[in-house]
């Protein structure tokens, strides 16, 4: 299979059965949730850090740190949701999303 053919065939995973493909897609979704959450956390802390250079923005910077810290709680929540989702689907032998 050539490179271009591979791109057109379900991301190169067409040799996998449907259940495995669904599991892989679910895993990919949770990976994207992790990445998006991490980028948002970094953004809050970076902007908050710059706000500390200006006296008038220190309070806003502090709030951005609080938001970033609170959002760090989302990280384990995503992991728990992922594990529960996979466990539930495996125990019920039902289809993934």
From TrEMBL:
This is YrhK-like protein. InterPro entries: YrhK_domain (IPR025424). Signal peptide: none annotated. The lineage of its organism: Bacteria, Bacillati, Bacillota, Bacilli, Bacillales. Residues 1-22 are annotated as: Disordered. Keywords: Membrane, Transmembrane, Transmembrane helix. Residues 28-83 form the YrhK domain. It comes from the Bacteria. Pfam families: YrhK (PF14145). The keyword Transmembrane applies. The chain crosses the membrane at residues 32-54. Residues 1-21 have a biased composition (Basic and acidic residues).
